[in-house]
Structure formats: structure tokens, C-alpha cells
Amino acid sequence: MPLGEFELIARFFDRGPAREAVLGIGDDCALLALPGPHNVTAVSTDMLLVGRHFLAGDDPASVGHKSLAVNLSDLAAMGARPRAFTLALALPQVDETWLAGFCSGLFAIADRHDCELVGGDTTRGPLTICITVFGDVPPEAALRRDAAQPDDDLWVSGTLGAAALAVHDLAEGRPRAAGDPARLRLDRPEPRVALGLSLRHVARAAIDLSDGLLGDLGHILDRSRAGAEIDWPAVPVDPALDGLPDALRRRLALAGGDDYELLFSAAPENRSAIEAIGHRLGLPLARIGRIVAGEGLRLHDARGRPLAVDGHGFDHFA
Ligand code: ADP
Ligand code: MG
């Protein structure tokens, strides 16, 4: 006999008395304490739809992981510490095997980041996962998109392009095997939460790379009313892209999405502090360009010649 809504919530999502929340799952609302006198609450929502953000046959544990990872990535990009999340779930039917896998991936990353599930909603419908995360940040330390200033350095964490390569190969009918490194970057993105926290009072503007470096940098430039120069040879292209034709390599690294690395601007006097953060976290941080006065985004090669990139970022309505 299929589980009812309340049994399903009790079995899969209610993990006993709340730790972080004053009151968690089971009442009309969850109760969260205010985050102390020096913090404000950072709130972000991301929705994942079957057929658009993942496929029905995808490993449910990876779907659970990614659903929360993309939300934690938004907190990271704000310099916020994760606290709690809610989960709104539409399910076509109660598939206990799928739910158990989904929960294993979801709660593994939730526990690693001390982010507690405090409520949600469950309904029947096409498979849809909508998560809202709550985090803490002192307002003056928040890494806002509008805070970049001319002459700031531009930095990016990790490597770029591997997730886009996995998407590209899938579209070409050559899906990569489950354990393939590029496929792992797509299925199991690692939100840069520790980096975001370390960048408080060090970086000025930040954004997480979900739609591709050029498009996401464009959001910082729009909000900060500035331009930028990017030095293509300094961009940390993922080794999975080695050997690809130049134009494809450039497109995947600069205009491909789903990397969930952080792109941030910082004053040049903070260079050594940023390098120290990278060493401490064991995460490469590359200085790829700078913010300039005026408008526009210029990309250049090793000799300073302008480069073009086809396909800027990803826009669901384009
Ligand atoms: P209400 O009808 O008052 O909105 P629901 O019956 O939808 O309450 O949910 C009962 C309780 O279970 C609430 O505390 C709600 O936050 C929680 N809940 C429902 N679905 C989920 C879910 N998918 N994950 C976590 N908590 C959930
Ligand atoms: Mg409800």
C-alpha cells in the first residue's frame, strides 16, 4: 500500500527534535531564532525540475545532493553561514527507493554544512524540488553583486568547464559514465561555503557560477555599473578539457554553466590574504582579470589581442 503524505514526511524527512531551529518539522510553521544582533538572515530559493535540471533516470542521491548544493552555493556567494532549509517536493508517485536515495544525498550534504531541514510541503505532481535556504551574515560583510569597484582584481575558485563538458557530451549522445570526473562535477557540485565565509571583509563583490563565467560576471558588472578585462590564459580551465579544439574549450570554460565555483572581486592589496585563504582551504584561487571603469567585458589572449566567445551564459527564456 502506498504511503500517505504524512507517513511519507515522518518516514523520510522528519529526523526528530530540531537542533538548530526552535521548532522544526510538524507544526504550521518552523520557528527560527533571530541570528543575533550582528547578523541578518540571507534567504535564497532554487527550483529543480525533472527534464530541465535533471533527468528522471538520474541517480536520486545525486539529485538530492545537487538540490541543496545549488542553494548552499548561493549562500556561499553572499558570504553567509548556512543554518536551515525548507523543501517543497512534488512527486508523481511515492517511490520509496527513489526517496531513500534522494534523502541519502540530501542529508549527507546538509549535515556536512550544518544546515537543518525545518519544514516543507509535499504534493503530487511532475517531479519538482524547490528548496529555500536560510543563512547568517553580518550585513556589512555580505558579498553583494553591486560592490565591485574599478581596479579590483577578479578571482575565480577551482577549475571551469568540466560540468559543461559533461552536458555537451550528453547532448552529443555520448553520456559520461557515473564516476567520470567531469560527470561528477555536474552531478555533485561542491558549494564553496568555507571560501565564501573566508572572503568576508576580504572580497568586495561575489557571485556563484551557475550559468557560465561571462554571463555571471555580466551580472556583477550590471549591478556595479562597471566593465571588466579577462586574461584568457589565466582562466583555470579544467584538465578534462585538455585536447579539445580551442573554440570549444573556450566556450565550455567561459560560457558553460554548472561549475558552482565563486567569482569575486577584491582590492589588489588583498592579494596575499586571498592566496593564503586558497592555501588554507586547499582550493586553487586564480586571478583572471580586473574590474575597469566604464562598460563592457573584454577578453584577451596572452599577447593582449581581443578574443570572441560565442554563446554567453545560459538564460532559460532566451
Ligand atoms: P500545512 O498543511 O500546515 O502546510 P503540511 O501538512 O503541509 O502542513 O506539513 C506538515 C508538516 O510537515 C509541516 O511542519 C511541514 O513543514 C512539514 N513538511 C511537509 N513536507 C515536507 C518536506 N518535503 N520536507 C520537510 N518537511 C515537510
Ligand atoms: Mg503544507
What does this structure look like?
- The protein is an alpha+beta fold and 318 residues long.
- It is built from nine helices and ten strands.
- The protein has two domains: 5-140, PurM-like, N-terminal domain (60s Ribosomal Protein L30, Chain: A), CATH 3.30.1330; 144-307, Phosphoribosyl-aminoimidazole Synthetase, Chain A, domain 2 (Alpha-Beta Complex), CATH 3.90.650.10.
- α3 (96-112) links the parallel β2 (81-91) and β3 (116-124).
- α2 (60-78) packs parallel to α3 and α4 crosses α5.
- Residues 9, 13, 25-28, 87, 89, 117, 119-122 line the site of adenosine-5'-diphosphate.
Short descriptors:
alpha+beta, 2 domains, six-stranded mixed β-sheet, four-stranded mixed β-sheet, about 30% helix, globular, binds adenosine-5'-diphosphate
